[in-house]
Amino acid sequence: MNVLRFSKLLFGSATVFFLIAPLIAILPLAFTDSVFLNYPIPGYSTRWFEELFTASVWQRSIVNSLIIGCGTTLLATILGTVGALGLRDRQLSPVLTTIKTIFLLPMVVPAVVLGVGMQLMFARYGLTNTYLGVIIAHTVVAVPFVVVNVLAVLQGIDRRLEQAAASLGATPVTVLKQVTLPLALPGIVSGAIFAFATSLDEVVLTLFVAGPNQRTLARQMFSTIRENISPAIAAAAFVFILGTILIAIVLKFSRGAKQANI
Amino acid sequence: MNPPRRSKQVISLVLVAPLLLFLVFFFAFPLVTMMRSAVSDPVAARALPTTARAVSSWDRVSPPTDEMKAAFVADLRQIGDDQLFGDLVRRLNSAKSGFRTLMSKTRTAASETDGNIDLIALDKRWADPSYWQAVSVAASSTFTDRNLLAAVDLQRDASSAITALPADASANKVIMLRTFVMALTVTVVCVLIGLPFAMIAASVDGWKRQLLLGAVLLPLWTSLLVRTAAWFILLQDRGLINSVLMQLGVTSGPVPLIFNRIGVIIAMTHILLPFMVLPIFSVLIGIPKNLMPAAASLGAHPVRAFLYVLLPLALRGVVSGSLLVFMSALGYYITPALIGGARDQMISSVIAYYATGAANWGMAGALGLVLLAATMILYAIYLRLSSEREVRP
């Protein structure tokens, strides 16, 4: 039995190491003062962070990522939340079940396939090489995350609360504004965060739809790795990982708040 | 259906309408556009309208008639747009090589005089019916199955029968086989690591379980690009993994880990492992805890109890996880593009090459259709399995 226990411990730690170590191992490289991404690190400096936030290509791409990320978050959260409100019943009719499947489909379709189609179609309507085009493309792949998150919270809401509000004379709009949406807020917030994160990380659709003026941070990282790798990548990765941890904390917090409410 | 339920249904439909319209227009429509580009072939029909009529009565075997030749020259004179002419040449040349020189020669001759031109005297290739077959096929229809056939290394020969492409002409089957093998390898490695890991995570509780699940969720939430960048940095010849191996004396020189198959498999396994662990874990925690002790109390050896009790129950999670991993791996683009070498590119890279590199939308669309169909079939199976699970309890 001890052998089993020991092998469980060994296998478990080895897998945790495999999953986590690569992410941790590149963090110190962001602070190297050399132009190479090698260990041992010769000396420490913040030069690559300075490069990241001052070099015009990087700066531009960060600004673009924020513009496109905010646009996507806004559009995806509105469309996704309204759509999820229509799908909240536990017993969906066949039509609505089909619609729910369609809403989740963009998560599954290979990005390159969607990218080719979007480039062809967007070119016809003058949407390629525009911010609007990139925001629309990102919204298509971000919206399923909003639907899933909002739906999960909506289905946990006790419908008697809304019925109580309605029986006390609240109009459907008031019920929605005063009862349903506040209760659904944690799900909307997590959905919005997922939408933003999806947009921030999107490369393939951006490659097909965006022009040089809409180059996002992820797109810039992709071409930097491909063409001339520099420690600025490690600095960008550092920012991303830090952001991930912050997002995880916010999500944990909003879930905690949700549990406290009920 | 009573009135309140119907009005509820109407409200639901009104609420889902905006997103549905958005997705129809910006998700379904692009996919349809891509599929159409795979089968549409309007260039020759648009550029050669009179020729199209003239060849309709031709049997495609006998020598070209004078009427066809005259119509062809007349059409060539009509083409003022260089873009259209370029597209036409590219279209014809893709059906039969040699059209590039032949067409520019013929166009120059046609523009120099207004009278009749003896095409066969100009170039004896015009006496060869196979060139006219190519013109005839291209001009007589605005749709083609050429790209779809070429996507699976097939073509139509002179008599319109479907035959295999010559071995040197296309490598799509090789790419598809490679994509399949790589996706399968990643899936198998993910099962080998993910199944025991999920079992361990389900067997412990408290902070240990939190730690194990956190280790799966953190990479899942981290940017795909960051994870790929991390592996790109670590796998290099002078990267951390090779330095450690050399320090330990395992190897004297760097082991090639990047720009080859090993690197892509390692990175893709790391990226897709959470999609294997989570479905298996969620199945395992639903299994009553006392099953294994029960098996043991009846005298089953732990290995036997595992094989006959736990594994069959966990299999559903393994199938779901495998489908998810395999389906995602099939369409992978970024990781193979950055970490793989030229011989590790999967079908997505080839589609991207046809679309952005070669501007061959027909082939990009046809290969995209193959990938889309494969993914959708796998997803349908996955949905079926997971809905069965929901119904069960």
UniProtKB/TrEMBL annotation, chain A:
Keyword Nucleotidyltransferase in record: no
Give the main location. membrane
Task: Give TM segment ranges.
Answer: 62-87, 99-125, 131-154, 183-209, 229-251
Give the membrane topology.
Answer: Multi-pass membrane protein
Recorded GO CC terms: plasma membrane
Q: Which domain of life is it from?
A: Bacteria
Which GO terms fall under biological process for this protein? transmembrane transport
Location relative to the cell: Cell inner membrane; Cell membrane
Tell me which residues make up the ABC transmembrane type-1 domain.
62-251
Which controlled-vocabulary keywords does the entry list? Cell inner membrane, Cell membrane, Membrane, Transmembrane, Transmembrane helix, Transport
Q: Which InterPro entries does this one have? A: MetI-like, MetI-like_sf
Concerning its family, UniProt says:
Belongs to the binding-protein-dependent transport system permease family.
Query: What is the recorded name of this protein?
Result: Polyamine ABC transporter permease
Automatic annotation (TrEMBL), chain B:
SUPFAM superfamilies xrefs = MetI-like (SSF161098)
Provide one Gene Ontology cellular component: plasma membrane
* Compartments (UniProt record): Cell membrane
Superkingdom of source: Bacteria
Species of provenance: Phyllobacterium brassicacearum
The major lineage groups are: Bacteria, Pseudomonadati, Pseudomonadota, Alphaproteobacteria, Hyphomicrobiales
Family the UniProt entry places it in: Belongs to the binding-protein-dependent transport system permease family. CysTW subfamily.
A Pfam match: BPD_transp_1
Q: Single Gene Ontology BP term?
A: transmembrane transport
Where, by residue number, does the polypeptide cross the bilayer? 180-204, 211-234, 240-259, 264-285, 305-326, 361-382
Q: Please state every residue range assigned to the domain named ABC transmembrane type-1.
A: 176-382
Protein topology in the membrane: Multi-pass membrane protein
Record's protein name: ABC transporter permease
